[in-house]
Design brief:
The chain is of the alpha/beta class and about 130 residues long. The chain has three helices and six strands; from the N terminus they run H-E-E-E-E-H-E-H-E. The protein has a six-stranded mixed β-sheet with strand order 1-6-5-2-3-4.
Length: about 130
């Protein structure tokens, strides 16, 4: 009498546990991504399709940033704190103030971001032009 043991290993893979884990991860990332509030600057880049020109009756407010970090407001040299005060005064006079930021080609990003941060702080529209 030959009795054979059935010790065959089953090679099946259950996908149900894997789909449960994927579903839980999906829910987790959907919930956490909705709680993240982006901290971004309101920046308008000049484009071909939209007009970013300031109104013709108001002279444009141009902020030039040189490669060494010096800042010029409408041709006059100002420091960052002076620029902060002048933008605040200009915003009080004109609620639709727009700054045209023109950096030089080799300007460090920290100087451009400092000017954009001032514009963001006072709710001023900032238009960033291509570096010269």
């Amino acid at each position: 009498m030959g009795l054979k043991k059935r010790t065959k290993v089953s090679a099946e893979f259950s996908m149900s546990s894997l789909t449960d884990i994927i579903f839980l991860l999906l829910i987790f990332f959907m919930l956490t991504s909705s709680m993240i509030i982006p901290n971004a600057l309101n920046l308008k880049l000049p484009g071909r399709s939209q007009s970013t020109q300031p109104p013709k009756d108001v002279p444009p407010t141009i902020v030039e940033i040189k490669s060494n970090g010096s800042t010029y407001l409408n041709g006059g040299k100002v420091t960052t704190s002076q620029l902060n005060k002048k933008v605040r005064e200009l915003k009080r006079k004109d609620k639709k103030l727009a700054l045209i930021i023109t950096p030089d080609d080799n300007t460090a990003n920290e100087h451009v971001v400092a000017v954009m941060d001032i514009a963001y702080r006072y709710g001023v529209t900032a238009i960033l032009t291509d570096p010269k």
